[in-house]
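B., you asked whether I could sanity-check this one before it goes into the benchmark set. Here's the sequence:
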Amino acid sequence: MAASRRMDSKPVPASDIAHLFAMERIGQARGVPWLCAVLLAISELGDYRLAEQTRKKLEASVAAFILPGAGDDDDNNGRPSGLTGTATEQPGAYDAHNQLLETIEPGTIATLRNGRDIRFNTPSHNQSYPDYIRAELQQIASGALMTYELLTGDLSNTNYSSIRAGRNDFRAMIEQLQWAFFIPFQLDPLWRWYVDGMFVAGRIREKNYGVEWDTPRFISIDPYKDALADLIEMRAGLKSPIAAIGERGYHWKSVLAEFRAYFDAVDGEGLVFDSDARKVTKSGSANNLTPQQMDAAADRILRALEADGDPDAPRLRALYQAAVNS
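And here's what the prediction gave me:
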């Protein structure tokens, strides 16, 4: 049998660890959980929900009570009237088998002292339960630095303006965490270590390599209005296309490469789409095409009609030649 390997602790330089935590005071060496401010509230809310669930379960399990009639005395020591032979002399509630009722299960009928009249159970309704749960969840969401709607997915009391305002505040906080916290304290050290490792391994000749980070995009609530706002800001010089592309989670060089490949393929097929701003305006009309480009486009269309055997192709070809020769 092989001897078990013992794990020995070894010191590691702090410079070799990317310890990611929010430093909220001078000299802080350890981080605290993101939900530390509301951990107790979360635990207590869970306990309350369990207690409320247990209460409702017990209420629903008791189907009916058999109560004593008016003027009955306690001559049967709390046992059901007419049931004898039990060794139990304790007063209390009994089941149909003359056994002292100690547990409750669905459909329980509890017989009390000298019970003769049946009364069916009507479970109560805690009308304040939803409001209490909502108030507690709002407190937890506030402690977690997010909105109640994002925490619970409950949009019943929201409208377009309120949810958009809440999303904007949450987005601003996330962007602050990304660029002022996560990227400089976690991703940049990882990049430096990666470059150092590549340099030591002889894969690169120098270590002066920069890096550009692209964060995940935020899903737009109103894509049309957001795109229109980006267009206005870019045309006014308030935002660059690079920034607009980066906000959507893409790298501008990759987007340009995709456009280049797409336009080369489209031009090779002789096609013109409304999405091609080089040739078509926003309204769909030609975008300052030269006569040579217009002639080439018309010739491609005529060739396509002739290849398909269109009966109007000869007439259109004749009209085109007459227009060119005029």
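One thing to flag: Residues 82-88 have pLDDT under 50 and may be disordered. Otherwise nothing jumped out at me.
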